[in-house]
Amino acid sequence: MSDTxxxxxxxxAFYKRLYPYKSxxxxxxxxxxxxxxxxHREWAFTLPPDTYVRYQSFADADELKKQVCQLNPxxxxxxPVYSAKPRDRKTVRAANFTPQLRELxxxxxxxxxxxxxxxxxxAGICKRCxxxxxxxxxxxxxxxxxxxxxxxxxxxxxGRRGIHLWISDKEAMELTDEQRRALVGWLTVxxxxxxxxxxxxxxxxxKSLPPGIQMSLESLRTIFHRLILEDQDCFAEExxxxxxxxxxxxxxxxxRLRAKWEIKSRSSEEKWEDVKREARADKGGKIxxxxxxxxxxxxxxxxxxxxxxxxSKHRNHLLKAPFCVHPKTGRVCVxxxxxxxxxxxxxxxxTVSQLLRELxxxxxxxxxxxxxxxxxxxxxxxxxxxxxxxxxxxxxxxxVRRAKREAGPDRSW
Length: 413
Ligand SMILES: [Zn+2]
Hints:
Layout: H1 8-17, H2 21-29, H3 36-39, E1 41-47, E2 51-56, H4 61-71, E3 75-82, E4 99-101, E5 104-109, H5 127-148, E6 153-157, E7 162-167, H6 170-173, H7 177-187, H8 211-231, H9 238-248, H10 251-263, H11 268-281, H12 289-303, H13 309-313, E8 319-320, E9 335-336, H14 352-365, H15 383-407
Antiparallel strand pairs: 1-2, 1-3, 3-4, 3-8, 5-7, 6-7, 6-9
Bound molecules: zinc ion.
């Protein structure tokens, strides 16, 4: 990926001709006619070189488009639905301007995997380390649907080396900050910075794992084998296997393993077999509870989704809007289908320059008419991604219609 900045002219052309305002409106509003979910929604714009404009709000998709094209931001972010229109906040008392609703959001970034991935470092990302993000998406998507019952999950590529999740179920939108904190607490398994070796502390002593995490363990074991042992070979080098030994913390076991591994070079797979064999050796073939717990915790530490918890805890946290352009890579932050996350390749996501080229070619062959039409994205490789969002919006709107029918007339706001 090149590190060149996207020019303001290119950004403006993208905002004028390609950004799917109508789909974004439907996704945030849940209905065709504007509701508070849209009109009372905060937008924030990042303007070059370093201005940040907060508390913007709009009546509809056209007003949003007009402002985006006028400001030509490098990116823009979406905040909560407030009790008053954010642009009017100075005319209402502070107590009357509070966040009411907000999608439940999650952020997963490659930065949090730097100490376990062996293939790349820093800003680098490849097909192999994307597997960490893919695994996190699969596990978190399942856990959220199974444990919390949410259905309207939108995964969005962050444009570089991470992914965002937006949950639009009514119950998720209505969560208070306290409830969000509790929910994120349930889903947080990995804690502590670089200096902390053992990052998993989710059980009491050697008791079994909490049920939610236990449910994920089977698929995490598969990921551990394929990704950590085979592909990344995390325990090949001394730094890697020393970390592994520290996580075992059974002196007799680690002493025997260290003696063996110092003499002979063994693959991560072989070392993990050694761990299992040594764990059995002390107790006549049966693995002691301490070692079962230690091995499960190791699997969790290397495979469980690493969340940036702060993003999820507060309703007023702003998060980059889908379909913005990453200023460094030029890639569009497109929605991603979690069921095919393993075959998603960040380097195949269209860049803004590529899309404008496609549009020019389509325009030239069609006689160059209607260049500012709303659905110009249809002529480009952005189409499958906007279609994906539109299907999501259609399902969300159907759900809202059904809920309204059940609630009877005039109960919505
Ligand atoms: Zn890599």
